[in-house]
Structure formats: structure tokens, C-alpha cells
Amino acid sequence: MPLADLEGHLFTLHVHGFDGFERLSDVELQEPPSAKRTGVRFMLGPECPQSVKFVGMLYRDTSLERRAVDGMVHPAMQFRRADGTTLTGFICSQVLGRPGQERCLMVYCEPLPRLDQNRESSMLFVGGFDSADAMNDTERAMSFLAFSYPTETSKTYVSDSPPWTSSRHSIACSRRRPMRS
Question: Is residue 148 part of a domain?
């Protein structure tokens, strides 16, 4: 699905076991923002959570205004989810006057209980979905991307069991049509 047509969920990244990942150095933490990279800091409370979920949502600016608690879009803003709870999200958008200026990427983070009890640390990415119509229609073929780290082997495992073809540690999954990278 072209990003220009997407409204809503873009990706989810689950991470747990932070000690299993390399920390940024003090120098990296102090690097100034650039055109290709900037840092954001999520405040998760006094205790380090067992697991966190980062979610990327793509919205038109007008749709994002309706989600904002104060009705204004800010680089770091409070927004209201469908269940009525509020979270802080960081907003990225194209420079005014450039194509796509009305599209905003919102990234938020929230703590979760540990997802994988068998590993010290892990990471799971899910994104690249087909349209909502295709995802909700069990009669239509659909696809999405998934990545799980660590993997026991570099092979991609794909199963042909209907209605989903999926993999234990796959790069891509689809319903009724495996996609391989």
C-alpha cells in the first residue's frame, strides 16, 4: 500500500531485555539532530519496564489534531487513543512547502509485561501492511512484514498451512501467498 494512502498503524516494534542490546555512548547521546537523525526520549517512569512497545502511526495533520488532547499538533504531544487513555507521541513531518507536508508520523512508546519468557532479550517488528480492506477481508490475499531477533539460524522458515503462511523468524509473511526477500 502506498504511504500516501495510509492512515493509521504503520509499524509496531516490541523490545525486551534491554541489557542484551548495546547502549549508546555518551558521545552518541550528545549528538545534535541532523536532517537524517534525531533522538527522542520516552519517559517510562522510575522503574525500567520489562518490555516496551514502540508504535508508528501515520496521519493527516487534520486527523492528528482531532486526536490531540489540546487540539494542537506539537513535536511532542499528548494524544487520546480510541479507548480514552492518553499517551505522549513524538511527531515527524515533511517541511512546509514540500510534498507530503500534511502527513505526520507519530511515534509513541508504552511499557508492557515481558513477552518472551524464554529469551534474555528479543525484538519483534511488524509493519508494511496491505490496506485495511485487504487485512480485514479473509477471502483476499494480504501481506505484511515481520522480523524477529534473535534467530537461531539465518534461514527463513515459511509454512504453507492455511489460512496464514507465516514463519517462526520470518522476514515477510502473507495469507495464501508467501513473500520472500
Answer: yes
